[in-house]
Structure formats: C-alpha cells, structure tokens
Amino acid sequence: MSAVIDSHGHAHGHDHHHGPRGGIMRWVTTTNHKDIGTLYLWFSFIMFSIGGLMAVGIRLELFSPGLQFIDPDFFNQLTTMHGLIMVFGAIMPVFVGFANWQIPMMIGAPDMAFARLNNWSFWLLPFAATLLVLSFFMPGGAPGVGWTMYAPLTVQMGIGMDLTIFAVHILGMSSILGSINIITTILNMRAPGMTLMRMPLFVWTWLITAYLLVATMPVLAGAVTMTLTDRHFGTTFFNAAGGGDPVLYQHIFWFFGHPEVYIIALPGFGVISQVIPAFSRKPLFGYASMVYATSAIAIISFIVWAHHMYTVGMPVTGQLFFMYATMLVAVPTGVKVFNWVATMWKGSLSFETPMLFALGFLFMFTLGGFTGLVLSIVPVDIQLHDTYYVVAHFHYVMVAGALFAAFSGIYFWIPKWTGRMYDEKLGQIHFWLTLVFFNMIFFVQHFLGLAGMPRRIPDYALMFETWNAISSIGAFGMGLAQLLFLYIVVKCIRSGEPAPQQPWEGADSLEWTHLPTPAPYHTFETPPVLK
Amino acid sequence: MRGKRVIPVLAGLAGLAASGGAHAIAWYFQTPASRMAQDIDMLHQYVMWLIIVIFIGVFGFMFWACYAHRKSIGHKAEEFHENTTVEILWTLIPAIILVVIAWPVTKVVIAQKDTTAADITVKVTGYQWKWGYDYLKGEGEGIRFVSTISTPRDQIEGSAPKGEHYLLEVDNEMVVPVGKKIRVITTAADVVHSWWIPAFGAKQDAIPGFLRDTWFRPEQIGTFRGQCTELCGKEHGFMPIVVRVVSQDDYSKWVGQQEKASAAAGDRPGEMRGAQELVARGEAK
Predict the structure, then answer these.
(1) What is the pLDDT of residue B285?
(2) Which of the residues A35, A111, A162, A511 is marked catalytic?
(3) Which residues in A lie closer than 8 A to residue B70 (C-beta atoms)?
(4) What is the CB neighbour count within 10 angstroms for residue A374?
(5) Which one of A82, A284, A388, A483 has the fewest CB atoms closer than 10 angstroms to its CB?
(6) Size of interface A-B (CB pairs under 8 A)
(7) Which residues contact B189 (CB under 8 A, 6 or more apart)?
(8) Is A174 helix (H, G, I), strand (E, B) or coil?
(9) ipTM
C-alpha cells in the first residue's frame, strides 16, 4: 500500500488530491473499493433482472397444465440458466459488492489489499455473464441440464454447454481472486486496536466465506472440466463403459455445492448481524458465540454433501452418516437465530425498511432451515427429493434468506454510500409486496412437493393445478415489486433527501462512527485510533 | 387423522378449494399404500410438529419483542449482550432434540435398504423417455415390456380436454401381487433417471452402467402412479410410472396372459431386441 501520508485525514466532499476521473474509463479502470463495490451491486441487479425474467417465463408456462408457450427443451434451458444466473450472477456478486464497499471502512483500512486485482475480479463477471446469455443463441441453445449439470446428460448437449463451462470457470476465477483479496485485507489491514474479536460480525462472515470459496471453487472447476473432457477429449470419468461413474460427478459437484449454499448464506448472516443490533439499539448478543457458530457451520458444511444424493444408491452407512452430519448443522444455525432474537429482546426497536427486511429474513430463513431439517431425514427425503418441496426449501433460504439480507443491507447502507435517504414509505411498500408475493410463490410449493410433483417438468398432472396457478400469480407480483425497488434506488441516488451524518442511531461500526455521510472517495488513508 | 397441519393460509384458500374443480386439491403425501410409506408419513408428522412448536416458541419471543420493546412506546434498551449459560443451554438442548429425532429415523433408514428375501424381482431400465420392465425372479420371470406414456399429444397441446390421469398413464403397466415384497433393480440406458411411486415410498435413481435396488410391499389393491424424478432431457416430464397391484389370483392370470402373448409373438427367453425390431413391435419410435 502506498506510503503517502494524507495529512487531510477525513476530507469532506471532494478530495482534491485525486477524485475519480470522468466518464466510462473511470469505471473500467477504477481500483477504488467503493467504485468496484458499486459495479458489483449494479451488475448483480442486472443479472437478478435477467434471471427474474426467466423465472417469470417458467412460471408462465407452469400457470396451467398443458404446454402453452414454451417447448420442453427450452423450458429446461430456462430452468438451468435461471439457476446459474441467479446463483453466480446475482446473489454471490451482490454480497461481494457489500464486501468491497464495507470491509475496508469497517476495519479502518484505506482500500482492499490488492486494488488492481479487485478491478480484474469484477470485470471477469460481465464477460462470463455474456457467455452464459450467449449460449441461448448457439445451435442447440443453452444447456438444459439444470444448474447442477449432472453427467452424463451434459455430454448430450450442444456447444451451449461448452460456453457455460467456460463461463463457470471464469466466474470461479473471479470468486477465488476476490476471496484472496478479502482474506489478505482482513488479516493484514485492520486498524491498530481492531483485534479479530473486535471486528464487526459482517467482516467475520466474509472472512469465513472467503475461505470456503477458495476451498470449493476449484472443485467445481474440476467437475466441469471433467465434463468438458468427457464431451470432447475421449475421457470417461462419468461413463461406465470406460470405467467411470455418473455418481462421481455428483460427489464432486456437491462437495462444492453444499459449501456453496453457505457461501451464499453467510454474508447475509453478516448483514443481519449489523442491522438487527442497530435497530434494536442494543449490541449483538453473544458476539463470540456468533463467531464460533459461523465457523462451525462452515466446517460442518464440508462433510454433509451427499444429503443431496440420498437416492443414488449409496450404502446405508453413508446415508446415516450424512443424515447425522446434516442434522448437526441445525445446532450452530439455531444458536445464531437465538442470538439474533436475544439481541432484539428488551432492546428499543424501530422498524425502518432495513429492519423490516432483517425481520423477514429471520422469520423466513428459519422456516427454510426447518424444511432443510425435514429433508435431512433420509426416509422423508426419499419422498421429497427432486420434488417441489426442495425447490421451496432452497428458495426460502436463498431468496427469503440471502436476498432479503441483501435488501436489508442496501437500505441500511445506501445513505452512507450516496449521502441520501431512500423514500421510507416506498421502501416499506417494497418490503410488504415482496414478502407477500414471495410467500405466495413458494409456500404453496411445499404442498406441491408433498403431493408428489417432481422438479424440472414443464407440464404436470391435474391434481397440481391449483397451487401452480397461485405460485405463478405470486411470481408476476414479485417481479413487479422489484421494479419498485429499482425506482426507489434511482430516486434515492438522484433526488433523495440528504442523509444526516448518523441516520441510524443504533449503528456503531467504524463507517458510521468515524466517517462522514456520504463516505468520501478515499477514507482512512490514516488509520483511525481505536480506544 | 393424517397430516392435520395448522396453516393460516389454508383457511383463505379453502374457498379456492371448493371452487377448484372436480378433483380435490392435493397438498400432502398421497394415501400410503405400503407400511413404509406410512412410516415415512409418521416420521414426517413427528418432525413437523416438533418444528412447529419450536418455531412458535422462538418467534413468539421475536414478535413479543416487536410489540413490547418498541422505541415508539418508550421502551429503553437494556445493556446485556452475552450469557454463557444460555448459550450452552441453547446449544445442548437442540442437540438432544436431534438425537431424539434420529433414533426412530435410523430404524426406518435401515429397513428401507433391506432388499433381501424378495418374492418378486423386477429390473427397471430408464430410457430417454420411457421405462423398460424385466421380471427377473419369482412368479412371472421372463416377462419383459416397455412402458410409454399414453396421454395423447392433443391433450398436451390443449386441443382436447385432459383426461383424469393426464400425464400419469402408460400403455403397459407394471403389475404386481398384493402383499408381496417386490425388489426393484434400477438401471438406465443413457442418462440418470429416477423411478418413484409416492404411494409406496419407493424412489431409486436409475444410473447408466450400474445396478441399484430398492423394494416395496404393496398392501392395497389398486393402481398407483409416479413419475421420473431426475432431469433426463427434453421429455423428462413425460415418462410416468404406473404400477397395478392385484390379488394373487389375478396376478397369476396376468402372468399367464403375458406368457401366452409372448409365445405367440415368437419371443425367446432372454433375447436382446435391436432398435429395428423394437420399432416393428411398436415398442420404440
């Protein structure tokens, strides 16, 4: 990091040493963590919109039995791309956006450790996203294999599959490089006095998540590379005729895939752990427990992967081991939920939009966690595996969980980022619309799964008609509600009320206590002194 | 009474149920037709009630705090922010609850894997996009046929009204006698499929190049329907499974009919049929 000492310390308004250059090139060449954070956030919103359109297409076809709009092959392509775009293009990058904006400010550092690498980590993403979307326009279209890309179905796909594999590699590279940056920054650039156990929990959750990413993204790269060579270079990793095994793919994929869902969830937990104490005007309950619980979740996440594979025919001992390990993860997760509630208990609560989304998260992530417990039970999973019950479960934890946490964080931090307040009334409307429509889409899908509706089918038997119609109406509503969110954000940036220096009286991390609102382009060029 | 869940939403939707059409709105496991399916249902209910109680407990606290600890009514925040005793308790108690769940579950897991001493063994092969059945052992061994969806295309495309068993009907049903243990060996010819009959609680992936197995013992006479449950390509949603459970006498009669038809067609036991021949017999397109 540069040895130049900026004697101005915290500059107000424009820093006349080096403000950002103008125009497009600012965004292409920026190495500033705030700019890069903004790039990640807008990118993830664009991907969220594209993935959302695909979801609307899926729900449109599923509105009633029969094939009305979309042929089965294209339906499979939409399902696959919806999953890949939402997981890798929307929900993961949004939290990297938070990491970039928030980590340096929260630890009293001037920027990320590797500022140029940070720029490259971002710019890999639009390139990868273009490849993904481009696959639709290739002969054969996008691959129709599900986001899980099981072999040997993947071997049957056209060139869209290869584009997707290439995109997955690039997305993985971006995550790994970003994680190296995050780990190095957190371990080396904390202000004097900020020990690890004094860091905001958001920073802890990202430290742990970054290790998960570094450990698991290469495994995914391995799985898709083996798929690529089985497709084109005569290998038979997943082909019994050559001594291989399709189930090998599943093991490798899910060894990545299970920690991946915690990669998605943990930064969300971190955001919630900042928001709830702020709006309860009370410190986070059980800080040390929360650190240990998050670490336990991360470690356990490596030994549960085959709970996605209970029906492949593994020996009973395997089923039992993975069941017990999976049930075990409920313990530290429960500890976190209890600690959040205990933070609220006997606090002094207010319910502005960030808190509404945090409470929505708490309620519905927990509901999703409970259906996860139901699914962990092998005999019950035999009935529910590959049905809509699973679809309901993971949307509860990833949408009502991680996405709500992201909304919470955006409403919480947008005053610090922009110097302006969002419209509180509209924010609340966005919350209630999203909450109601989300539940309309996904609560009823539990019933569909219990009743026997499989996943990934474009048409279904008549007994599933009613819930599918309701679910589809919910999807249209939820989609429209997100247009309101876009309006709220743009209106805030352009013409929101100037934010007070301390818009949230209970917020106590460094960016709130030691920096002006909005945060200047360069902050903490001199580290803060912590008592 | 099975599965009586308290769901606030259900009340509002009851109206929809009444207006919803000739068939009841399915929202829970299908009626169990085997002891295993019944045991699974019971386990599910056991866990569900536990979860509901914990959920109401925890969120009772949360909603109470939202009501009674609001700043707007003047509630002042207290200072406490840690308590080791409480942390230990809410770590240990859930762990104990999990052990209490795991104990009865373990017995069912082990039972579900025990495919020994079957009365009839049937090999089920997944194809893109239909199922093949081979009766390998027990009464009816040697019977082989392919089972393809029989819902007419015009129903799917909307130019004809949909029949009662829309997408859940086939040309040749798998027939088994009631009360006997049926071992199902699964495999596949191309990609991974999965064979599932919800009413029996039996699901097993069909993996190309490998043999896996599961079992069921149907306790009721009737026709039971399921679907392929592993994405296998374009027509994944259009390869249903139908198992007809009949009395022992009717089963013997069916076996006799199948063997007669097979002899009349000049089949030799255990012969492999090529693609052209399958097409000629109407078993492939």
Answers:
(1) 64
(2) A111
(3) 348-351
(4) 19
(5) A483
(6) 293
(7) B125, B126, B127, B128, B132, B208
(8) helix
(9) 0.93
Report yes or no: B235 at the A interface, CB cutoff 8 Å: yes
A31-513 adopts what CATH topology? Answer: Cytochrome C Oxidase; Chain A (1.20.210)
Q: Would an 8 Å CB–CB cutoff place B77 in contact with chain A? A: yes
**What are the two backbone dihedrals, phi and then psi, of residue A170, each rounded to the nearest 5 degrees?**
-65, -40
Check residue B25 and give its pLDDT: 79
Residues A181-219: pLDDT tens digits? Answer: 999 999 999 999 999 999 999 999 999 999 999 999 999
Q: What is the pLDDT of residues A354-377, one digit of tens each?
A: 999 999 999 999 999 999 999 999
From-to residues of CATH 1.10.287 in chain B: 8-112
pTM: 0.93
Nearest to A285 among B27, B82, B157 (CB): B82
Region(s) of chain B under CATH 2.60.40.420:
120-267+276-280
**What SS3 state is found at A457?**
coil
Q: Is B42 on the interface with A (CB under 8 A)?
A: no
Q: Which secondary structure element, helix H or strand E, spans residue A209, and what is its range?
A: helix A201-232
Residues A517, A168: Cα–Cα separation, whole Å: 38
User: How distant is the Cα of B245 from the closest Cα of chain A, in angstroms?
Assistant: 19
Give pLDDT tens digits for A324-356. Answer: 999 999 999 999 999 999 999 999 999 999 999
Best A447, A453, A473 residue to mutate vs chain B (most B CBs within 10 Å): A447
Of B164, B165, B234, the CB nearest to A76: B234
The answer to whether residues B125 and B174 touch, using CB atoms and an 8 Å cutoff, is: no
Domain B8-112: assigned CATH number: 1.10.287
Determine the distance in angstroms separating the CA of A222 from the nearest CA of chain B, rounded to an integer.
20
Three-state DSSP class for residue A288: helix
Q: Which amino acid is at A407?
A: F
pLDDT in tens, B29-66: 999 999 999 999 999 999 999 999 999 999 999 999 99
